[in-house]
Design a protein that fits this description.
The mean pLDDT is about 95. Helix 5 links the parallel strand 3 and strand 4. The strands form three sheets. Strands 9-8-7-6-10-11-12 form a seven-stranded mixed beta sheet. The chain is an alpha/beta fold. About 50% of the residues lie in helices and about 15% in strands. The protein has three domains: about 80 residues, Glutamate Dehydrogenase, Chain A, domain 3 (Orthogonal Bundle), CATH 1.10.285.10; about 130 residues, Rossmann fold, CATH 3.40.50; about 160 residues, NAD(P)-binding Rossmann-like Domain (Rossmann fold), CATH 3.40.50. It binds NADPH dihydro-nicotinamide-adenine-dinucleotide phosphate. NADPH dihydro-nicotinamide-adenine-dinucleotide phosphate (NDP) binds next to helix 9 and strand 7.
Length: about 450
Amino acid sequence: MTDSSRLVETFMENVRRRNEGQDAFLQAVEEVATDVLTIEKNDPGFARARVLERLTEPDRIIGFRVTWADDRGDVQINRGWRVQMSNAIGPYKGGLRFHPTVSPSILKFLGFEQVFKNALTGLPLGGGKGGSDFDPKGRSDEEIMRFCQAFMRELSRYIGPDTDVPAGDINVGAREIGYLFGAYKALKGQFNGAITGKGEAFGGSEMRVEATGYGLIYFVENMLETLGETIEDKRIVISGKGNVATHAAEKAICEGARVITLSDTSGTLVAENGFSQEAVKWVRAQKAAGEDVSDPPKDLELQFKEGALPWEVEADIALPCATQNEIDEDAAKALNDTGVRLLAEGANMPLTAGAMRKIGESNMLYAPGKATNAGGVAISGLEMSQNAHGRFDSADEVDRSLKEIMGNIHDRIAAEGREGNRINYRRGANVAGYRKVATAISAYGVV
Ligand code: NDP
């Protein structure tokens, strides 16, 4: 065992003891610890402040009951949380997720990742995450509205433009943000930037909806540039069919790539010659209407493969854009076998620890979500500043900023992660994000 792996093991023993059974959180912490603990040990200020250990304990976890009435008038009870992870470099910032799998442990993992991601954007944003175990599948529009209002009755006590600024995540899109912000405004009697991802008619930024998926493609183009290649004509397999997946597909097609798959929990849509923009629009419309994608119109030339994963389809680039741990060791092996040379994460931590090891042993160029999907929170950061200054930037201006921010993230990571003529994007992202947060934490003293 090397000194550095002993250091990580001792650190993780302590974190494991305090967070038993919180596998996703432990996986996220260990990945960062592996890359930054030696840096912390060798910096007297960081070491004295015990920065990483502090970051594994959220500033606070707020939990509350959400009581609402369904369409039959029956009372329904859900749980809601906000994990305020760290406000070392700005107000807590991170999305809200509505999904039956949401728990304090999942939100801790997402909040932990968010701290480093937000630091990488170069904007003054702390990290947090929230949500509920509410399952919106099959719920009417009225029920979604009543649930959002009940959720905000509690959450509104803890958020504000300088305190904590939530946004969307899985199952929290434009409609939910509208209901949440409407409720916040009514409860507080204030119109301010306490939530991002708002509609453009009421303080939202142009391009926020597209930003995560578009930013992912800009980042991939930066990666390809270091290899002397472009995205044109590359075959791309994408998982998911939500906000991140469909906007990544849309931008990739604009840039001349061929998007071969999109997917959901029931199966994979394959377009052997590449999705058209019409086909992506159809997928998005089906999802918005709560309809499945198993029977696409003939003229879109899509094939639905029930139960299949996108990773067995031949491709150059893979973009997992669905959810955490969606790629296990078998899927990682399949990606290797089909000849994928570049994997960039649209989702947060889509690889299991085993899959990460497999990809690490291969020649695949890999970039983590905390870098590649940071475009969404970056444009949320611009939305906060537009709200604070009563400004409204045009779509062209925001798109230019997004491209610039993704380029800067790439360069910050490259500066920390260069290993010979290759860039280790995982290490570069962890170290660059950590250094910024650690510098702030060690400057504050013991608070
Ligand atoms: P959406 O709710 O818009 O879409 C998620 C999609 O993924 C759904 O279509 C869902 O399928 C599908 N899905 C879920 N689990 C699986 C699975 N195991 N296999 C295949 N498909 C699956 O979410 P987003 O697009 O907003 O978020 C996707 C990921 O990106 C998440 O990890 C999120 O944290 C991350 N992210 C999102 C950001 C944003 O701005 N929205 C910003 C940064 C990260 P079904 O329809 O069957 O449920």
